[in-house]
Amino acid sequence: MVELYLYLLLLFFSFISLTLFFLFYKHKIPFSAPNLPPGTIGYPMIGETLEFLSTGWKGHPEKFIFDRMIKYSSEIFKTSLLGEPIVVFCGASCNKFLFCNENKLVTSWWPDNVNKVFPTSLQTSSKEESKKMRKLLPHFLKPEALQRYVSVMDHIAHQHFASFWENKTQVTVYPLAKRYTFLLACRLFMSIEDENHVAKFSDPFHLLGSGIISLPIDFPGTPFNKAIKASKFIRKELLKIIRVRKVDLAEGKATQTQDILSHMLLTCNEDGEYMNEFDIADKILGLLIGGHDTASVTCTFIVKYLAELPHIYDRVYQDISHSVRLVWIKFLFSVYKV
Q1: What family is this protein classified in (predicted)?
Q2: Could you give the 3-state DSSP secondary structure of residue 253?
């Protein structure tokens, strides 16, 4: 019996040793090539993730970047975040290099945790997906199309401010901005007007947004595991919406120019093939995620800086055009001023 316990203990320690060796070896390989930029990869697996998150929690996320620019290089340095090796480009010249060489010297890439959240995106490369999206979106970003959205944005803004901003002595801007931008995205992308229907997506999207930028540890209860479950739930709901829209299009209750969803369903590629429902669901999901945090963060900072810089606020308020394209922005400023 004692020998059995010793054997099991030896087996356990052997397993732990092999696991640690694999983690260290896997972590070391990406940065073992010569001519790499200066920097450090931190601890195995987690890299410098904890320090990166710590600066964010303290309200100074830029400190992580600035500290390394001072220590290693003002233009480029290496690090490791969320289990992935990373090279950070800093400054105007480096950013120009990146954006001028897209799909030439550099190409879009997603880490494994994103591919697990969007499994159908693995069917084609990131480069091909980027090209597809660029062909789909310009139709909805032309000046004529944007003019059609102004009345929709204005109407939703009126309802939003009347419900959550007016007659309030104090508001927390960021969650309200997220609520507004997400409602607007659902309306413009899929023509969903019922706030209760939109609210059904709210919590899963919060879990999804948090889980995508977490450590890719797929165990029950982890943010990453919750993100995968949330993506499955959202995808099922989107598939229901897509199938209803297909029926509406066939019966003439919806049009191709109604929103991006209709356009995706009725647009074929060079070979005459239409996108399948799962690809469309993933693309709509990606668009909703892209507009969920970025736009709301921008709106929040606009309100923050206008509140802190009243002379800028007054100048902006006076200079805003009365043209139809900027009516919704002026409404935001006017409601805030009240």
Answers
A1: Belongs to the cytochrome P450 family.
A2: coil
Helix H or strand E encompassing 40: none
How far lies 150's CA from each of 156, 184, 206, 241, 324, in Å?
A: 10, 11, 27, 24, 7
For residue 103, give the DSSP letter: T
Which DSSP helix (H) or strand (E) runs through 276?
none
279 in Cβ contact with 270 (< 8 Å)? no
Residue type, 254: A
Q: Is the pLDDT of residue 123 over 70?
A: no
- Residue 89: phi, psi to the nearest 5? -95, 135
CATH label, 136-337, candidates 1.10.540.10, 1.10.10.60, 1.10.630.10, 3.40.50.920: 1.10.630.10
**How many CB atoms neighbour CB 155 within 10 A?**
13
Q: What angle do CA 189, 161, 56 make, to 5 degrees?
A: 75
Cα 213 from chain centre = 9
> Is the model's pLDDT at 329 over the cut of 60?
no
Structure token digits, residue 70: 């001072």
How many residues would you count in the chain?
Answer: 338
Cα→Cα distances 13→6, 27, 70, 192, Å: 11, 21, 42, 56
Say what angle helices 277-308 and 195-212 make with each other, to 10 degrees: 90
- Count other C-beta atoms under 10 Å from residue 209's C-beta: 16
**What is the C-alpha separation between 239 and 283, in angstroms, rounded?**
12
pLDDT in tens, 193-240: 887 888 888 888 888 877 877 777 788 888 888 988 888 898 888 999
Per residue, what are the HEC states of 250-311? Answer: HCCCCCCCCCHHHHHHHCECCCCCECCHHHHHHHHHHHHHHHHHHHHHHHHHHHHHHHHCHH
For the chain, the first-to-last Cα distance in angstroms comes to 80
What is the pLDDT, as a whole number, of residue 204? Answer: 86
